[in-house]
Amino acid sequence: MKFIHIADVHLGVKPDQGKPWSEQRARQIWDSFADVIGVAKREKPEFLFVTGDLFHAQPLKKEVREVSRLFGEIPDTQVLLIAGNHDYLREKSYYLSDLWPDNVTVFKKEEAEAVVINTCCFINDAKEESVNTILEMAEYKKSGTCKALLVSGCMAQRYKEEILQEVPEVDGILGTTSYDEVSKVLAKALKGERVSDFHDLSELPETKMRSKRLVTTGGHYAFLKISEGCNKRCTYCIIPSLRGPYRSVPMEQLLAEAKELADQGVKELILVAQETTL
Questions:
Q1: What does DSSP say about strands 247-248 and 227-228: parallel, antiparallel, or unpaired?
Q2: Which of 90, 166, 197, 228 is deepest in the core (most CB within 10 A)?
């Protein structure tokens, strides 16, 4: 299956409102989204998944019309829209109007057969939000159409035993270096198995899943992840327990990715890692 997955697009936002560059950045977000549609037209994927906050707020009718026009340019690609916490579905929302072309489906929670929760637990607020979401979806699984509930990410890595013991509704759990196994875990969960999938924290998941990137940051800059993990083990920090020891992305891979980004018009690379000061 060939698909494109994007999230947190935030059409309609005006970054740094009042600053001279605010309107330009707002337009660049729309342009980046149009670029995604251009890639879909060229690559012809079966699906385009938009999972959360396509819009920065409840969309205006003209915004839905513009997005609908763009989706209409890829009629052979099925588009699945999932609202987020900014553009959540509410009564009389234009999200639920008949403005969408036939290839677009607006997903409602009540129709979910599988739920994947990607968690964080670096700070208490993130941990609380993750716990509440897991419990909310566990309750939904009891009464709704959900047949498989998976938990992945940092909280799953740190509290895997507790989650499996305390939340029997969870069918599968994946660590921070095994997210490329989510489809396999989901397939097993839908067959009734309870699956725990954790890989060695010394692995580099980006190396396993190397593919050409789609830049959605506006064109002139992009993020380049140079490493994973940390060796310092500060007493106040849990990064090594969640993300593993420090390991660099191979230099040849970084250079190749940087060249690809430059060929796409990127002028500035922002280096990203848990530890950049070695």
A1: antiparallel
A2: 228
